[in-house]
Design brief:
Number of strands: 14
Strand order of the largest sheet: 3-4-5-6-8-7
Number of helices: 14
Distance between the termini: 46 Å
Helix content: 40-55%
Shape: elongated
Radius of gyration: 32 Å
Structural class: alpha+beta
Order of helices and strands: EEEEEHEHEEEEEHHHEHHHHHHHHEEH
Strand content: 15-25%
Length: 474
């Protein structure tokens, strides 16, 4: 499974895969707002699997993920642990080591546990988890959280997990919190929209100002003066917080029912731990996975039957993520550092920079003769008809993008039977007078990251979003 199919919105992944065909390995998932770099730690080549990253910021911290296979000799693993732990501690930064050691801290007499405990004591390391992490008939504490700064760590805990044999271990660390700024967008709310009422109000509105205006710009302003108040009333502008949408197939009735059975089986196993309740819990947990796979397949099958373009959009949205996290252009850091102004100045100066480069490369050699330009002076576009305007609107894509006027294709399609004739008057006036309202030429420029350094403005491609009416006119 590559990084593109490990979808963790808002997070990045560092991984170290296990060599061979068996799969597996260790990984660290961290919030994008944390600056993390891989840390190379010498290893003795034992079966111990480790991955180290260093967090750089206000307080540097080292985080390690470890896994020890349950089989094999213990002595080489202990020696390797000692060398790696001593190396990261010598960097004099807080160290946090998490993972499955397969050393049961509740069974001090088991092979290797005594040596492992002595190793932690010799290096002044503290293992903070004290309750079993692998429940069942014979609970065990094999998932550990090790640190050299227990005073900076609070609330170590075990969180019940119904999707694995192991429960989760968690803790809060002082000085490492990276508050993620909520992302908000402005949308037209359609929650309480009555389309018939909207069309009726538009039908009863006074559109005479459109027909009395002398210029195309005045006609468009009159059209907007009628349109905007009614749209604001029926579809008010609201700001909403963007949250990652969970997989829609998880709302399937069969999946929810299987999850309820699994959770009930987990409670029964915790109340009465024995082989029978453990077997029932495992069976119910496997049933949840089967139900999820079936619901996911059915979701994409129905999506494919409806529209192939929708299918690929859903695949990119729910199953595949980009290789690199996309930068947030509207984060607090970017706004405070004048990042948007830097982008604007770069895009505005690209044309002059290219012209200067071409002028500098001009050798003065005569250009080849160009063929004569033939211009038909008799060309004159004819006014459009209402059916032609309706057909052009229906042929436009179903994009939800809008220009500065906030008008979308869906809004025009929904209200076209009422506003179509008035809009046609404005468009035909523009054709006859060869006048284009200034607002139709104003585009919202959206920078898209092409790749490379996110702090380099030349690594962004500007996309101009024109008003929908301007696209319809063209």
């Amino acid at each position: 499974m590559d990084d593109r199919t490990l979808v963790f919105p808002g997070y990045a992944i560092k991984r170290k895969d296990r060599s061979g065909r068996g799969g597996g390995g260790v990984a660290v998932i961290h919030r994008i707002g944390l600056s993390a770099e891989p840390l190379t730690v010498p290893s003795a080549g034992s079966p111990l699997e480790t991955l180290w990253i260093q967090l750089t910021g206000r307080r540097q911290t080292i985080v390690g993920a470890i896994y020890r296979p349950p089989s094999g000799p213990v002595e080489p693993v202990i020696d390797d642990m000692r060398d790696q732990f001593a190396y990261v501690i010598s960097r004099r930064t807080p160290v946090y080591i998490l993972g499955d050691t397969n050393f049961d801290a509740l069974q001090a007499t088991k092979p290797g546990v005594k040596e492992y405990s002595r190793l932690l004591a010799d290096l002044s390391l503290h293992q903070l988890i004290t309750t079993p992490t692998r429940p069942g008939p014979t609970p065990s504490l094999i998932d550990h959280l090790i640190t050299n700064k227990p005073d900076l760590t609070f609330d170590p805990r075990v969180v019940a997990s119904n999707i694995s044999d192991h429960d989760l271990i968690a803790a809060s660390v002082a000085g490492l919190k990276c508050r993620q700024q909520p992302r908000t967008i402005t949308v037209r709310s359609t929650r309480h929209l009555d389309q018939d009422a909207l069309r009726l109000d538009l039908l009863l509105a006074d559109w005479d100002g459109v027909y009395r205006a002398d210029t195309t710009t005045a006609k468009w302003d009159a059209w907007r003066s009628v349109w905007s108040p009614l749209i604001d009333h029926h579809m008010p502008v609201r700001q909403i917080r963007i949250k990652h949408q969970s997989q829609p197939w998880l709302n399937d009735e069969n999946v929810r029912a299987a999850m309820d059975v699994r959770d009930s089986a987990r409670l029964d196993r915790d109340r009465t731990p024995c082989e029978e309740t453990e077997r029932e819990f495992r069976a119910s947990r496997n049933a949840v996975k089967t139900a999820q796979h079936r619901a996911c397949a059915e979701f994409f099958l129905s999506s494919y039957r409806r529209s192939r373009s929708t299918t690929w959009r859903d695949i990119r949205r729910f199953l595949v993520c980009s290789d690199k996290p996309q930068p947030s252009l509207h984060s607090r850091e970017n706004l405070q550092s004048g990042w948007l102004n830097r982008l604007n100045l770069h895009f505005a100066g690209v044309g002059s920079a290219v012209a200067e480069g071409l002028a500098a490369s001009d050798t003065g050699a005569p250009l080849r003769p160009r063929p004569p330009r033939v211009v038909a002076g008799a060309f004159s576009p004819r006014p459009a008809t209402l059916p032609e305007l309706s057909t052009a609107l229906q042929r436009m894509s179903s994009s939800r993008a809008s220009g500065d006027d906030g008008i979308t294709i869906a809004m025009l399609r929904m209200t076209f039977p009422v506003v179509g004739p008035h809009l046609l008057n404005v468009i035909n006036s523009s054709i006859r007078s060869a006048e284009l309202p200034p607002s139709w030429r104003a585009a919202a420029v959206v920078p898209l990251h092409k790749g490379g350094d996110t702090d380099d403005p030349s690594n962004y491609r500007p996309i101009s979003v024109l008003p929908v009416v301007a696209k319809l006119f063209g």
